[in-house]
Every structure is written in C-alpha cells, then in structure tokens.
Design goal:
- With 155 residues, the protein is α/β, with parallel strands linked by helices.
- 28% of the residues lie in helices and 27% in strands.
- The protein has a single domain, classed as Phosphoglycerate mutase-like (Rossmann fold, 3-Layer(aba) Sandwich), CATH 3.40.50.
- The protein contains 4 helices and 6 strands, in the order βαβαβαβαββ.
Length: 155
C-alpha cells in the first residue's frame, strides 16, 4: 500500500509582479499552519516530496516541514504549469521503495490529477487543501486512472 498526498499551496498574495514569484498571503500562512497542526498527530513522516519551485509552493512546503518530517525533497519548475501527464510522470518516477509521496502544486492540474487517480468526479482543491489517497500498487509506475482511493481531504 502506498500513500499519495496532493497539496495545493496556501492562498497567495496579489501584490503584483510575476505570478511565479507571488508569496503566501497572511491567510495562506494561516491555512498552512492550521493544516500542519491538524496533520501533526496523523502523519509523522513522508518519504518523498515533489514541489513546484514557485515561491508560494516552496513557502507552503517549508511551513509543512515544521510538522512533518520529509526525507527526500525535489523542487521542480515543470510542476508550475504542468499538464496532467506531466504530474503523472513525476509521481510515476517516485522511487519504488518509497511508501509515501506528497506533491505540492497548483490548480487546476492538481485537482485533475486527484480526479484521474481516484476515478471520482472533479473535486476542486482549494488553497491549503490536502487530499490523501491510498494506492494498492507495488510500484509508483503503475499509477493511472482509477488506481487510488481518496481517503480524506483536510483543510
């Protein structure tokens, strides 16, 4: 059994500048702190994290690490404007020995990935929302349509 966590970054500010460089708003910081506090007693560690290299996603991941130990981290620019296939390819290449993986990214593609893996109708992950999926797969490379079960969404 593998666990996949899909986390949409906290709410970003609209202070101008490039979208890629937007920071978390105070509300976004509060969202991630609430989420981290909620997860503290549920999840002690995660084997692998793939995170968009956009500022708001890196800030979200950094704050989450105050609550959950993340063993192996990778920041990838292609997550920022990824297609569904790009996100699938990233997770499919997670090392086989890892039992848990978190993807910190952006909508609408993160919500599309959730729907694709779970086989459920489209569910819009709001900012600061975490979807928890269970995958009955021996290898991440077997990930695909309807290969996971959505266990819960935490905000």
């Amino acid at each position: 059994m593998k666990q996949l966590f899909l986390l949409r970054h906290g709410e970003a500010s609209f202070s101008g500048g490039l979208d890629f460089e937007r920071n978390l708003s105070q509300n976004g910081v509060n969202q991630v702190l609430r989420l981290g506090s909620s997860l503290r007693n549920r999840i002690s560690s995660i084997d692998k994290m793939y995170c968009s290299s956009a500022v708001r996603t890196r800030e979200t991941a950094f704050m989450l690490e105050k609550y959950i130990l993340i063993h192996d981290k990778e920041y990838r620019k292609e997550i920022y404007e990824a297609t569904l296939q790009t996100l699938l390819n990233i997770v499919e290449n997670c090392p086989k020995q890892y039992k848990s993986c978190i993807l910190v990214g952006h909508n609408p593609t993160l919500s599309l990935l959730l729907s694709h893996i779970s086989g459920e109708n489209y569910f819009n992950l709001e900012t600061g929302m975490l979807a928890c999926l269970e995958l009955d797969l021996p290898d991440w490379g077997m990930l695909g349509f309807n290969t996971g079960v959505l266990k819960e969404v935490i905000q």
